[in-house]
Amino acid sequence: MKLTKRKLAHIVFESNDRPSRTFDVVLLILIFGSVIVAVLDSVTELKEEYGRLFFTLELIFTFLFTIEYVLRVWLTSKTFRYVSSFYGIVDLLAILPVYLSFFVANVQLLTVVRALRLLRVIRILKLGRYLAEADFIRRSLKASMTKIQIFLFTVLTIVLIMGTLMYLIEGPAAGFTSIPRAMYWAIVTLTTVGFGDITPQTPLGQFVASLIMLMGYAIIAVPTGIVSSEMAKQKSPEFHATSKTCTYCGQDGLDKDAKFCKNCGHPVDIKP
Amino acid sequence: MKLTKRKLAHIVFESNDRPSRTFDVVLLILIFGSVIVAVLDSVTELKEEYGRLFFTLELIFTFLFTIEYVLRVWLTSKTFRYVSSFYGIVDLLAILPVYLSFFVANVQLLTVVRALRLLRVIRILKLGRYLAEADFIRRSLKASMTKIQIFLFTVLTIVLIMGTLMYLIEGPAAGFTSIPRAMYWAIVTLTTVGFGDITPQTPLGQFVASLIMLMGYAIIAVPTGIVSSEMAKQKSPEFHATSKTCTYCGQDGLDKDAKFCKNCGHPVDIKP
Amino acid sequence: MKLTKRKLAHIVFESNDRPSRTFDVVLLILIFGSVIVAVLDSVTELKEEYGRLFFTLELIFTFLFTIEYVLRVWLTSKTFRYVSSFYGIVDLLAILPVYLSFFVANVQLLTVVRALRLLRVIRILKLGRYLAEADFIRRSLKASMTKIQIFLFTVLTIVLIMGTLMYLIEGPAAGFTSIPRAMYWAIVTLTTVGFGDITPQTPLGQFVASLIMLMGYAIIAVPTGIVSSEMAKQKSPEFHATSKTCTYCGQDGLDKDAKFCKNCGHPVDIKP
Amino acid sequence: MKLTKRKLAHIVFESNDRPSRTFDVVLLILIFGSVIVAVLDSVTELKEEYGRLFFTLELIFTFLFTIEYVLRVWLTSKTFRYVSSFYGIVDLLAILPVYLSFFVANVQLLTVVRALRLLRVIRILKLGRYLAEADFIRRSLKASMTKIQIFLFTVLTIVLIMGTLMYLIEGPAAGFTSIPRAMYWAIVTLTTVGFGDITPQTPLGQFVASLIMLMGYAIIAVPTGIVSSEMAKQKSPEFHATSKTCTYCGQDGLDKDAKFCKNCGHPVDIKP
């Protein structure tokens, strides 16, 4: 089998046959590898011992990612559209750090740019797009989005009012040094995270905090209720299989108790 | 187009055409602006540097809110009813702080009064009244209200009994200095916030605390369950508007894209 | 209207007409009053200032509760059954502390006995028995009870295994001084309370703790799911009203789309 | 009744008649007893006082478990399959520690091996296999497994990106000494555990932390929604056994107490 440019493009950009899926899996392993090296490199003890190994691996990953980037630029029919797209920029950022390190001395900046490589992990999630299950979660969340936005806006208003109230009650002595900081505390409390780095000290402050916590107790039910009822509404993939298709006009998604097609009025044959 | 008093009143009080919606949006920006300035003004570092700018902005906001308040009082046909209403008082409180600052020296009191301006944010939420989605959440919560009240009452009884128990077990040494404080701890624990400012030290106290936490684990399911089942029961706006009924056989719950009844095959009349 | 013994018994034990409901409300106020006094009496600053007032109120409450107890013993036809019942013992414990204080010097013990008066609050919850909404929550929880017990048992097994694991990994240095204490930490973590009084210090401990937390994330969904699905299954009071009753045999709870009674086969008349 | 080898095997391996259920219950008590002794033995104060008692009990438990193990090996028809199975290895590990203690001096290692005895608790859960309710939870979780895996993968990606972000913003000064440690903090925060051992100190860090917490607020709804909707879909055991189908018109989903079909009025045949 001769490897034409067209076949190569298919391997790089599609994922519906064996060679293109192999390409995707190899790429996934490389991305995971580079992310793990970056994570381990941030641990001081490991960097001291394996710093040279990490740097060598970094060079290898950069080399392979550079080949991949060049391939993508060369193979795509719409070069500019790919280069200026989100994935195009992320792919470029994935290979820049090492090349920049030859010119720039500021190591801290390089770490920041290098961390951007983590965004490539999103490419992994893209694979999940074809999974019916992932799609189910995505559809449920998308359908709930407006409700969740309204909910978050209401939560932020409560946080603003409660934060200001606690700032006035407790004041700087208890760590409520400013309204933004008091709002940070209100979010920590309302979401039931409760770090405990800032806590109310006065009896009145503890009373108001108790009210906020009980409010959070009732409020946490809302997003859960929204998503649950959306998920119950969303037809799951299995369920689809039990819906009927009209043999006359091809309309699908008919209810399973339908006797006539809702589109053309033709009687629906009952499945054996 | 001449701007009559009636047209102006329409712009100020309604929000169903272009000029009145523009008025609402400008008002929203002003309210957000004044809230953001108040929030930033509470940060000591920012106040030291931009204190004068914040004060000037405060004056401008107060001037504009004063015009708005005068307009509302002048335009409404029921002056007393507006002035004595919740929104009327909040609107007045929004402009008072600066005027009071010319007479009162107590700055702390002014901050408190000024913070009340935050209540104007609720006016923003009023806009959401017409959003079907927000209405859906509101109806679900309202329908669950009795159940949530009973639930909160039960929680408070548990908090009272458990707080007293922990006060007797742990005592002042571990921070449980009084029953109210022990009840504050019980709320912090039962809501799974867990600040960690007060924690049981004795083995018996830790055992009872474990029971409270496992109880909270089972209890947190109740409000969620209540709201979820209410939301599932509440028909969402789309569903309301779209389900059709067959005029021939009376079969209801037909899909909105149905042209023929799935029960009898009769064409479904499209609603006007 | 003459107050016979029978009428008095009706007032004290029932709650279905005006005088007996008045009796219940007065009793509720007294119970709440005595609980609030006991709570406030535990605050050192308040006790120092209002100690005498609290003691006088305590005497008054004890006097009134004594009358109530004597009334109940005198009026009931089954004296022994009441005295030995749960409520009978709680009612007796409510009046004992003051009488004991004349004989016993150990104040700490008295506080414990006095705290038992809080159990009378449960009597308040008894009133809720007739509320349809409270009954709905109770039925849902009762129906879920077996599932929640199995769930709690599984959670305790996870706590036991994870606690032992963390005890072996972290050891006394990080606060995991014994397996019971490590189990306490595991409960604090799994229920997402997270006090932070004991936290893993080693990288391995933090890794295992992360696993426990993510597990808790998935596990917290189970009781919520159980209660939610039970509540969705439980027919709410409103729903009952839409079910039909057969006019022929009196069978109720028929589905609203029923054309024939499922008990006697008689056609069901559609409600006007 | 003579006790043949076959009868004994039935008692040891089955649990469907009285003697075999008695055997299971005795075994359960022994397992619980040995676990409780191991747990209490880890408390320094208790070990000092009751160390000898604990050791004696340990010997007795080991002796009884040894008999049980020998019985199982002798009675099973597939000896190798049992010895090499998960339960076979766990049963062997349950008796090893004491025997090893005669040869090995390393006490720490012995504690680790001994802790493995806790795995025997899983045998207890096996009993629950026949409980319809436990099976209901298991089926619901199994059906949700794919969705929960995708969900956990998404959470881990968020943890990776947010951890790196916080590591760059806060740095070692606030406790974010490495990316793995920052990821540990992100998990602690996203799951709303919130130990408070590491907390953001800079305003920017607190802002990003607030975003993570609000995200966690919305995200926690997802697994709950998944499990809830699965549980609602799963038919509970009662429902399964009881819904009838009309043999005349084919209408299904009839109530279990229905004598006549609600659709056609035909008598419903009671299932044998």
TrEMBL record, chains A, B, C, D:
<keyword id="KW-0472">Membrane</keyword>
<keyword id="KW-0631">Potassium channel</keyword>
<keyword id="KW-0630">Potassium</keyword>
<feature type="transmembrane region" description="Helical">
    <location>
        <begin position="148"/>
        <end position="169"/>
    </location>
</feature>
<feature type="transmembrane region" description="Helical">
    <location>
        <begin position="86"/>
        <end position="109"/>
    </location>
</feature>
<feature type="transmembrane region" description="Helical">
    <location>
        <begin position="204"/>
        <end position="227"/>
    </location>
</feature>
<dbReference type="Pfam" id="PF00520">
    <property type="entry name" value="Ion_trans"/>
</dbReference>
<dbReference type="GO" id="GO:0008076">
    <property type="term" value="C:voltage-gated potassium channel complex"/>
</dbReference>
<keyword id="KW-0813">Transport</keyword>
<keyword id="KW-0812">Transmembrane</keyword>
<keyword id="KW-0851">Voltage-gated channel</keyword>
<keyword id="KW-0406">Ion transport</keyword>
<keyword id="KW-0407">Ion channel</keyword>
<keyword id="KW-1133">Transmembrane helix</keyword>
<dbReference type="InterPro" id="IPR027359">
    <property type="entry name" value="Volt_channel_dom_sf"/>
</dbReference>
<feature type="domain" description="Ion transport">
    <location>
        <begin position="21"/>
        <end position="236"/>
    </location>
</feature>
<dbReference type="InterPro" id="IPR028325">
    <property type="entry name" value="VG_K_chnl"/>
</dbReference>
<keyword id="KW-0633">Potassium transport</keyword>
<dbReference type="GO" id="GO:0005249">
    <property type="term" value="F:voltage-gated potassium channel activity"/>
</dbReference>
<dbReference type="GO" id="GO:0001508">
    <property type="term" value="P:action potential"/>
</dbReference>
<dbReference type="InterPro" id="IPR005821">
    <property type="entry name" value="Ion_trans_dom"/>
</dbReference>
<feature type="transmembrane region" description="Helical">
    <location>
        <begin position="21"/>
        <end position="40"/>
    </location>
</feature>
<feature type="transmembrane region" description="Helical">
    <location>
        <begin position="52"/>
        <end position="74"/>
    </location>
</feature>
<protein>
    <submittedName>
        <fullName>Voltage-gated potassium channel</fullName>
    </submittedName>
</protein>
<feature type="transmembrane region" description="Helical">
    <location>
        <begin position="181"/>
        <end position="198"/>
    </location>
</feature>
